[in-house]
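Summary for the lay section of the report: proteins are chains of building blocks that fold into shapes. Here we show the chain for Beta-lactamase family protein and then a coded description of the shape we predicted for it.
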Amino acid sequence: MPHRKTTAPDRTRRALVTGTAAILACSAFPRRSSAMQTASFNQAALDALRRSISARVDAGEIAGATWLIHHAGETHVDSTGTFGMNGAGAPMARDTIYRVASITKPVTAALAMMLVEDGVLTLDGPVDDLLPELANRQVLKRIAGPLDETVPANGPVTLRHLLTMTFGLGAIMVFPEAYPIQAAMREAGVAPSWVLPQMSSDAYMKKLGELPLAAHPGESFFYNNGLDVAGILIERATGERLGAVMKARLLEPLGMKDTDFFVPDDKQHRLPVQYGPDFANGGIRVIPFGPEQGIDFSRPPQMDSGAGGLVTTVDDYAAFCRMMLNGGALDGRRYLKAETVTEMTRDQLTQEQKQAPHAAMFMDDGGAGWGLGMSVGLKSTRPWLAQGSFGWNGGYGTTAYTDPKNGLVGIFLSQQMMTSPDAPKTYLDFWKGARAAVG
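The coded shape description reads as follows.
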């Protein structure tokens, strides 16, 4: 598991910061809670939470944030800071639209499972017919070996493999880059990065299909790419763009009116600046990340990234989380069967898979496993985890988890890119405050 060390050589440190960030890839006085104070929340804890996040803004650690806590049928929303660093731009607000990165994954997984329930997809059948690029794969004899030293795959790729990210390709946690397969993925434009895939879905699959797998299907956990491929599988099964299917089946019925894979012109004034480390200068200072850095949500992308491409608001994302909290139903409409939600939110990995070098950093020191498209809590090694909780964190500065045992949904959205395997202090502040507010 990589760690940032101030004593490392500049080149190694720059590679670590770059690699980790790539993978882990809103009045002047914002209004307070949008919900009336009830017995569901501890007001002192809510006040302390706001002070802690505001202190991070004052210290220049983030430009601002918006957060939501839902508990016992009541919802608290708050925000602090501004769209730009050092008080620049509009204030963060309840309807601020955020790029949410990897908390896209649970939404894509839920959509895939809706299609499984419909009989359009199968969870454990081969995906070869729809994704012929993944048929009859070759697998590296050893992950560090040359690309032409391979053996035939021991079986076909399935949707379960994609959603558990065990289909054979993804983030290889070696920094600086050392393995031929890492260089090949980067050169093909399919390596996990803060920059989403810059090609069509078909081109992405062609590039992916030209590479050997790093492990046999179902054998090892490699973060990220499985959910992009799952999104493409949805497209090919339905004959529509991922965004169109997601809107029709999930987003519009749930009332998620500001959630999409880009921000239209009439809403762009609600999208704050994205910030991240200045990789060219060792990641020491924070700079804006825009089109020149490969982050542009102002127009439809070439490919709707099921792994990290959504923009949303706290209220929109809360609708999805509340549906999952309620076992697949919300406001009288059923989206998923309760047993499907149970299957999605159970740990699908073996102990050996969770402890493997390319997986361990995503398992929160043994407190988490991985379900279908999302992290699942096993024990409370992090404040967002509890036994049976589920959700994920996004590398652009977001965290969202649902805790059925305690009836809690927590969502924190910022635009400060993660730069380390360790959780940002803002995430820790939010989750400690959220738990105290409902404890």
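Put simply, here is one thing we learned. The two ends are 33 Å apart (CA to CA).
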